[in-house]
UniProtKB/TrEMBL annotation:
Cofactor requirement: Fe(2+)
PANTHER family per the UniProt record, alphabetical: GLYOXALASE DOMAIN-CONTAINING PROTEIN 5, GLYOXALASE FAMILY PROTEIN
Protein name, UniProt field: Biphenyl 2,3-dioxygenase
InterPro entries: Glyas_Bleomycin-R_OHBP_Dase, Glyas_Fos-R_dOase_dom, GlyoxalaseI/FosfomycinResist, VOC_core, Xdiol_ring_cleave_dOase_1/2
Keywords recorded for this protein, A-Z: Aromatic hydrocarbons catabolism, Dioxygenase, Iron, Metal-binding, Oxidoreductase
An example molecular function term from Gene Ontology annotations: ferrous iron binding
Gene3D superfamilies documented for this protein: 2,3-Dihydroxybiphenyl 1,2-Dioxygenase, domain 1
Short name of one Pfam family: BphC_D1
Source taxon at top rank: Bacteria
Residue ranges of every copy of the VOC domain listed in the record: 5-121, 147-274
Family: Belongs to the extradiol ring-cleavage dioxygenase family.
Lineage, broadest ranks: Bacteria, Pseudomonadati, Pseudomonadota, Gammaproteobacteria, Cellvibrionales
Gene source species: Zhongshania marina
Length: 303
């Protein structure tokens, strides 16, 4: 499959208005002007109609990552590949696809139970992005072809889930890390696969060996184009009392200068800049033992 980008995320929330406040006043996102006033919250960062859809629900969780395919032929081939592999999927109605602002859409789960949507024909509304916090722009490529950023998802079945994205969906390996949190030599630790799709972003997906994650996400990442915007956001976070999950730091594998904060749904949001843009021709996946060059001291807030 030729997956091009992480185009959107769908978040279920018992209180979508919390995301409206957080998205606009902390992250600097814009209320999507071409999306319906239907009680849900849609947030925009570029020429796409929205990148975040926060849907009223009885649950608080990341429900779906929306992955973009190149065209209708690729979409048809993807469905045939899934059927041949015995992977069940739901082909949603034309009306529901239109509500997502795409031309064709299927819905399925990976082996660890994470929800994903594969689609083709994503719309551009070209409505000018005007950040309520003055952010000049987010790094999403040309017409949004690099996607909104990246998602790190829990993978209780790490090996099977990695194989699903690599062998079936066509994602490529970028990097691998393995963590141990105790000195016990028998501690098996936890693996973390970083994976890219067909765009220059170092990784659009990472899979973390996490057997119990009630909110369906470890973190999402947004990348701004100006380093000062990271500092301004950090000031807003501290002033508002939003829990800081990790201090400012620079990652080794993708060079991202970032910090992490809590979101209203309970997973983290990485807010950064200066991420690597890769040339995948002839690339050899790496194995990294040090997650950050400096900083990134993690302190998970109490649930």
């Amino acid at each position: 499959m030729d997956v091009r980008s992480l185009a959107y995320v769908v978040i279920e929330s018992t209180e979508p208005q919390q995301w409206l406040d957080y998205g606009c006043n902390i992250l600097g996102l814009m209320v999507a002007p071409t999306m319906p006033d239907d009680g849900n919250v849609y947030l925009k960062i570029d020429t796409r109609p929205y990148r975040f859809a926060i849907i009223k629900s009885e649950h608080n969780r990341l429900a779906f990552c929306g992955w973009e395919l190149a065209d209708e032929a690729g979409f048809s081939a993807a469905k045939a590949d899934l059927q041949a592999a015995g992977v069940a999927f739901e082909e949603v109605s034309a009306a529901e696809a239109a509500a997502r602002r795409v031309r064709g859409l299927i819905r399925l789960q990976d082996p660890s139970g994470n929800g994903l949507e594969l689609f083709w024909g994503g719309e551009l509304d070209y409505a000018k992005f005007i950040s309520p916090k003055g952010i000049s722009g987010f790094e999403t490529g040309v017409n949004g072809d690099m996607g909104l950023g990246h998602a790190v998802l829990p993978a209780a079945k790490l090996s099977a889930t990695h194989d699903f994205y690599k062998d079936l969906l066509g994602f490529g390996d970028s990097d691998y890390m393995h963590f141990k949190f105790s000195p016990d030599p028998d501690d098996p630790g936890q693996g973390l696969h970083f994976m890219h799709v067909n765009n220059p972003r170092h990784h659009s997906l990472a899979l973390y060996e996490d057997p119990a994650n009630p909110v369906g996400c470890v973190h999402l990442m947004l990348e701004v184009t100006d380093v000062d915007e990271v500092g301004y956001c950090l000031d807003r976070v501290e002033e508002a009392g939003v829990p800081i999950v990790s201090t400012l730091g620079r990652h080794t594998n993708d060079n991202m200068l970032s910090f992490y904060m809590a979101t209203p749904t309970g997973f983290a949001m990485e807010f950064g800049t200066d991420g690597l843009q890769m040339d995948w021709e002839g690339f050899t996946p790496t194995v990294t033992s040090l997650p950050s060059l400096w900083g990134h001291k993690f302190n998970m807030p109490d649930a």
